[in-house]
Amino acid sequence: MRHRNPYKKADRETRVRRLRIVILVIAAALALFVGVRISRKMRSGESIVPGVAYANTIKHDEAFWSGSPDITAEMLDPNPYSRPQKVLTKIDGIVIHYTADPGASAQNVRDYFNNLATTHTTYASSHFIVGLNGEIIQCIPCSEWAYCSNSRNKDTLSIECCIPDDTGVYTDATYSSVVNLTAWLCKAFKVSPDNVIRHYDVTGKICPKWFVEDPSAWETFKSDVKTQYEKIS
Questions:
Q1: 220 and 124 together in one domain
Q2: How many domains does the chain have?
Q3: pLDDT range class, residue 6, cuts 50, 70, 90
Q4: d(Cα 64, Cα 54) in Å, to the nearest integer?
Q5: Are 162 and 129 in contact, with CB atoms under 8 Å apart?
Q6: Kind and range of the H or E element at 9?
Q7: At what angle do helices 172-188 and 215-231 cross, to 10 degrees?
Q8: Would the pLDDT of 50 be above 60?
Q9: Separation of alpha carbons 80 and 124, rounded Å
Q10: Are 75 and 119 members of one domain?
Q11: Rounded CA gap, 156 and 153, in Å?
């Protein structure tokens, strides 16, 4: 009859315990490393969402952003009022807005959004802001929600457009720039130009004022976006 060696069994159990400890230590170290990276990203204002398709800064991926309009990235500080860092998992449309603040520049609007972290006066932001001279500022990554389009925050990108006066009509520079930006976003994120909508189409709010009060201007805009979209390779 063969007898089991109790010492071999004890040695095997000791090795198993040691292996478990090593695995737990490695897992804890990885968790700490990931936690530190996420914490640093949140403090720096970067997106915590990985992936090329949802680039967290304008120059994050050169191939993805190749051919884009001239865009300046000035991301908002993470905060509950304008940049909650909710993950935008899909993009099904582009929503056009206007600032309703005659004369305000794109930088003014961006800074207003950022200051909501301190003022707590409302919940508001936009992915992109197009200024009176056609300049474009991105202040929310395309991987995150912006507080701009109500029930469509969860599946759209938003573009806020500056206006020179109470008519709400864009300057020629703003109009040209938002046409180009909208067409490029549609192409980049595989969104049909037919899915470009107004804030008005979501909530009935008179926004953007020009395109609500003059439906023919909206149809012209949509046509111009489609024309530009077809030019993009």
A1: yes
A2: 2
A3: low
A4: 9
A5: yes
A6: helix 6-44
A7: 50
A8: no
A9: 10
A10: yes
A11: 6
